[in-house]
């Protein structure tokens, strides 16, 4: 359904209302607002900022970004990470998309080529410069993530950003320009912990909206070298026996899924 129609007909729809880096929720239990446009009086002046996100439970889902304005309402809010953690897998995709679209619109007001004001394209998610024809799409940054095994052990590392969480995870890093996903796996693993890997196997992928990554998962076998952590990125890295793992990420994230799957496979081999 088009945005115009939804507003004119005042159909029941799901609304993801983003304010700063939080989402407004209808109550403490639900994550998405299910209501009519006429009920959203506190964001009425944002009519031009509505974006179609997709469908959920056979109803349209719209994003409304109120940017950094101080809104007058008494509804509860939730941070984006909290929403992702507590939502269903289907909601996860919608929240990730909503946040990436909001961020895209906030950071593409002006043309990067000629500096003119950009216009939002009405039939696809893009901004367009009417002066020079430059068109921008929401950025997606591929990022590899890899579970490395050696016999009955997994290589897990604590990133410097997770220093105080006690959490150990798989290695991950952004793909560089001109690089294949597999080349990125070999380079990142060598840079971060100084070991070689072989027998790369594609595992799956997951969008991760912090801020616009697409995590591409691999399972790889250790091929040589001693663990030598890159101090800028890794504070600790070790081999862990699959029966004695440290605290690892939940299976909501692809890191958690990679660890769970690799452990299950190694156990099956025992
Ligand atoms: Zn331009």
Automatic annotation (TrEMBL):
Coiled-coil boundaries: none
Alphabetical list of InterPro entries matching this protein: NAD-cap_RNA_hydrolase_NudC, NADH_PPase-like_N, NudC-like_C, NUDIX_hydrolase-like_dom_sf, NUDIX_hydrolase_CS, NUDIX_hydrolase_dom, RNA_Hydrolase_NudC, Znr_NADH_PPase
Residue numbers binding a divalent metal cation 1: 172, 192, 233
GO molecular function, one term: hydrolase activity
UniProtKB keywords: Hydrolase, Magnesium, Manganese, Metal-binding, NAD, Zinc
Cofactor note: Divalent metal cations. Mg(2+) or Mn(2+). Binds 1 zinc ion per subunit.
Subunit structure and binding partners: Homodimer.
Task of the protein: mRNA decapping enzyme that specifically removes the nicotinamide adenine dinucleotide (NAD) cap from a subset of mRNAs by hydrolyzing the diphosphate linkage to produce nicotinamide mononucleotide (NMN) and 5' monophosphate mRNA. The NAD-cap is present at the 5'-end of some mRNAs and stabilizes RNA against 5'-processing. Has preference for mRNAs with a 5'-end purine. Catalyzes the hydrolysis of a broad range of dinucleotide pyrophosphates.
Protein name, as recorded: NAD-capped RNA hydrolase NudC
Gene: nudC
